[in-house]
Amino acid sequence: MKWKQWLMETAARVRADRGRFGVLCVLGLIALLLWARIIVIARPPRTAVAEPAVVAAPVQAPASDGRTTASTVSLVSSPPRNPFAVNEADFPSASTDNAIVADPTPAPTPVSPLEGLTLDAVMPNARLAMINGTVVRIGGQVPSAESLQLSEVRARSVILTASGSRYELLIAMPTR
User: Is the model's pTM score more than 0.85?
Assistant: First the structure.
């Protein structure tokens, strides 16, 4: 009975001063956090490590008539089929009823109007850009391609327009 009375008196003394009680609670929480960290460090997550291939060993198995027979168990080292391969029975590669014959001559690749142009520098506040070494203002024509007009200057690119189409020209990356 004395230990219960001592415990009650100690609890009353600790709770008497609110400041000390708050410090005691904070120190207790810090101690619990550190204790939890030690537990996490002491018990790292479990990982699996592959071991070398197992060689098939004879296994002694009792037969139904009481004699023991030796049998060899062989394990496959690779899967019998590719699990990522498409099954031709479920997904045929070519449909015979709606076959489309491709034109053997390839279509000519369109030439970009931006080909041969490099954006050297931009000044968005002044609404200027340097394209192929020539300074161009907004509304001005790009010198090497007369059909292109500078319509917008951005932080790292410019917008060029030609016959209703808009093209973005990015600033050239520095080369070493």
Answer: no
